[in-house]
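Exercise (ungraded).
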Amino acid sequence: MATKKYVCKVCGYVHEGKEAPAVCPLCKAGASEFDVVKEGKEGKKKGLNTNSDVYAIVYSVVLVVIVAFLLAFTNTVLKPKQDANVKLDKKKQILSSLNIDVDELANPESEYLKVFADNDKPETLREYLIDENGAIVAYNGGFALPNDSIGVPDKNKVKKYPLYLANIGGEKKYVIPVVGNGLWGAIWGYIALNDDCNTIFGVYFSHASETPGLGAEIAGEKFQKRFTEKVTKVFDDNGNVGITVEKGVKAEPVFHIDAISGATITCNGVNDMLKRKLAPYSEYLRKEREANVKQAN
Amino acid sequence: MGLFSKKNTEAFKTPLLKENPVTVQVLGICSALAVTNKLEPAIVMGLSVTVIIAMANVIISLIRNTIPNRIRIIVQLVVVAALVTLVSEILKAFVYDVSVQLSVYIGLIITNCILMGRLEAFAMQNKPWPSFLDGIGSGLGYAMILIVVAIFRELLGSGTLLGMQVVPDFLYAAGYKNNGLMLMAPAAFFIIACIIWFQRSKDKNLQEK
C-alpha cells in the first residue's frame, strides 16, 4: 500500500496520497500541519483492543502493582535516613529551648551528647522518665517516648513523662516537652527551667500549620523572648501551674506572658498546653528544688 | 525532526508566557496562594512542580498509546501520585528542613490542576521529547509567577527576602510597618490579578474584543 493517510491538525481534513499536500484545501494550512495516520490504529492494532473491559482491568492492575512495588521499595530504602532526620530535628528543637543557636552548630548531634551527658554514667544520656508522683521511672528512654504517648498509661498502668536534664556551663537545666492543639493543627514545644525548678531558662515552640504571620509567630523569636526577658515562674507556691499566656494583665506579673494580637486561638492553645502538660512535673520538680537547695547549703 | 526544532522550542516557550499556566490558563491558583508568603518555599515548590510535570509528561507520553481511553484520567492520577510520593520521600531523606516546610504543599502537587491539564492536553497526544519540553516550560512558567508573587509578599509582609532582612532598620524606626495582609492568602490574589492585568495590557492576543 503506497498511499498513506494524512490528517490536517488544524481542521481535521483527511488526505490520501504518497505525501502530504502542500496546502490544506479546507483551511489553507501548510504541509507541516499534516500528520500521518497509521493504518489500522482503531481497534485492530496488533490484535489488542485497548477499549475492551478486560484490557482496562488488566492494565490498571498491572499499573497499580508496579507503582505499589516501587513506592514500597523506596520507602524501605529511605526509611532509616528519614528516621535519623526526625530524631536529629527533635534534638535540635530540644537544644533550641536551651537558648542554643542550632543553626550555628557544625554538629548538633555532638552538642546534644555533650549537654545531656551523664557524668556518673558514661555513654548514657540524662533522658529521664518520671511519673506524676515525682518518682523516676527510668533513667533513660525519655527521648524515645513518642509525643503522643506522654502521660498515656502503659501496660503496667504507669503514666510516663519525659524529662531531660541538661548541663549548661555547670548548671542544671530541666527540659520538659509539651504538646497541644493550635488553631489548625498540632503545636508543641520544649520548656527549659533553671535549677530552682521554677523560673524559665528558655523555650522553644513550633507548629504544624498555624496561620503564617499570626499564629505561626509562636515559633518566632519575638514571642519566645517574652518568656525569658523578665523573670517568669511556672509554678505557684501550691505547686499549681501559674504561668498564663493572655492578652492584658490578669495573672501576677511573674506568671504573665503577653499573647500575640490576632492569634487568640493559637495563644489559648499554648496557654492550655502549658497548663496541662507542665502540671504532672510539679511534684518531681518540687523534690528536685528541695534537693538542690539542700545541696547548695 | 531535530531535538530543538521550531516546533519543539515552541512546546517549551508557549507555556512560559503566551500560555502561562497561572496567568493565562488560571490553573494551580490554590498552591500559588499557599506557598508564596516566603520566597524559599515558592522556589522549592516551583522546582518540584517543574520536575514532576516533566517526568509525568514523559511517562504518560511513553505509554499514551497503551492507556485505555476510559480510565486515562485514573492512569494519569496514579502516575502523578506515585511521582509526588517518591519526591516527598526523597526530600524527607535528604533535605528534611525543606520537606517539613513543604509537607502540606507536596500533597497539593497531586491535585495541582496544571499537571492534569498538561497530561491530558499535551502528553496524551505528543511524543516524549516535546512532552518533556512542554512540562519543563509549564513548570517554569508556574515557578516564575510563584517567585514574583513571593518576592512581593515576603518583601512587603516581612521586610525580608529569603529570610534575610532587606528593609533597613531606620525605616522601621521612622514608623514603617510590615503589611500583615501580605502574609495572608488574599494578598496573593491581588498580586496575581495585577500580573494578569499587566500581561493582558501588553499582549493584544489576550484581550477580549
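Further reading is listed at the end of the chapter. For now, observe: The mean pLDDT of chain B is 85. Strands of chain B lie at 160-161, 164-165.
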